Amino acid sequence: MPETSGSTGRTPETHVIDFRAAEQLLASRDPQGAVKLLDGVIDVHPENTAARLLRARAFFASAQLRPAELEFSLVLEREPDNAFAHFALARTYERQNRPRPARRHFRLAAALDPNPEYLQAARFET
Fold it and tell me: Which InterPro entries does UniProt cross-reference here (predicted)?
């Protein structure tokens, strides 16, 4: 019998399947469905940064900006050099009409990764 994790009765393999399905749901423009799947994964694996980053993206895509901000911030606490998380957090602040923190994170993203999109958002010359 496979080992289960926690009281959910689900196996670690099931959580991987849920994560992959959440990626597909987000790509198919069903961010709320993705969040539901990821909630279960994160309940059992709260340290999983990839799942938290995907859930942050899903929150952002469904215009749940405060939860997106919290998730992106948590990812950055664990991975302060994650340029994408800085960029996405900046976009979240931008949508909340908070230009000062947005500018800071756009610049951090551009400093960490000279991606043209990050440089343009930070208003650096490409």
Answer: TPR-like_helical_dom_sf (IPR011990), TPR_2 (IPR013105), TPR_rpt (IPR019734)
